[in-house]
Amino acid sequence: MTTMKEEEKITQPFSPDVLPPNKVICIRLCGHNLKIAITFDSSQGVSGIIWNAGVVLCNYFEKEAIRFSGKKVIELGSGTGLVGILAALLGGEVTLTDQAYALPQIEVNVAANIPPSDVRRSTISALSWGQDQNSFPADYDIILGSELVFHPSSYIPLLQTLLHLSHKETVIYLCSAMNPYTMSSSFYHDTLPPYFNCQLVYRDESKNCNVYKVTKI
Ligand SMILES: C[S@@+](CC[C@H](N)C(=O)[O-])C[C@H]1O[C@@H](n2cnc3c(N)ncnc32)[C@H](O)[C@@H]1O
């Protein structure tokens, strides 16, 4: 078991190649001290760690004082659950989703960070894009996603999922590292625009991450 001081030392940077496996990351976001378990091995794939885009999206919430109280929120591809947990701590009624294999880690992190008095406002469910979205309602106020756009084969299933879950008033916040190898910019410039307004609202230059505010046309 590491001490809090040791854990704090490994909170920067979040680059996946420098993170040791199976650690607890301590991070303060929007006035909340979060302890997020990460698993950097093949059992969790890309969902096991905190990606820069998740941290940048949380920083954007803080900078813009985004309000979650009383809002019905769904997070796609939650990974460790960092973003959805913060949205729940900020008052949202949040459904954290990912592929089934990733859910146990989200459950651990929800239990560790959301007090029992608030835990009824968070739900954890399996949602594979392009397959499961029709089992979910279509009336979310806010949809969240960080570092979801990293393989072109998932762009259409992700688009189908966003189309089902949203209505004209839904606000979707997506954050991505703008990595030329993943061609993430084409999702925002080509895939979304026929169906959604897609506005770049924040950029973290040091992490090369963009936050987009997306609404249905
Ligand atoms: C790069 S990770 C980002 C995790 C987290 N959002 C973050 O920022 O730290 C991508 C996440 O999307 C999930 N994912 C990938 N393809 C998916 C799919 N087809 N359906 C649902 N989730 C998927 C992965 O399991 C993983 O948790």
Oligomer: single chain
Please indicate the percent range of residues in DSSP E strands (runs of 2 or more): 25-35%
CATH overall fold name: Rossmann fold
For the sheet with most strands, the description reads: 7 strands, mixed
GO cellular component, one term: cytosol
InterPro entries: Methyltransf_16 (IPR019410), SAM-dependent_MTases_sf (IPR029063)
GO molecular function, one term: methyltransferase activity
Keywords: Methyltransferase, S-adenosyl-L-methionine, Transferase
Describe the fold and architecture.
It contains six helices and nine strands; from the N terminus they run αββαβαβαββαβαββ. By secondary structure, it is an alpha/beta fold. The chain has a single domain (23-216), classed as Rossmann fold (3-Layer(aba) Sandwich). The strands form two sheets. A seven-stranded mixed sheet has the order 5-4-3-6-7-9-8, sandwiched between helices. Strands 1-2 form a two-stranded antiparallel sheet. The model is unreliable at 1-19 (pLDDT under 50). Bound molecules: S-adenosylmethionine. Residues 46-47, 50-51, 53-54, 77-80, 82, 98-99, 102, 127-129, 146-148, 150, 154, 157 line the site of S-adenosylmethionine. One of its GO terms (molecular function) is methyltransferase activity. It holds the Pfam family Methyltransf_16. InterPro entries: Methyltransf_16, SAM-dependent_MTases_sf. Keywords: Methyltransferase, S-adenosyl-L-methionine, Transferase. One of its GO terms (cellular component) is cytosol.
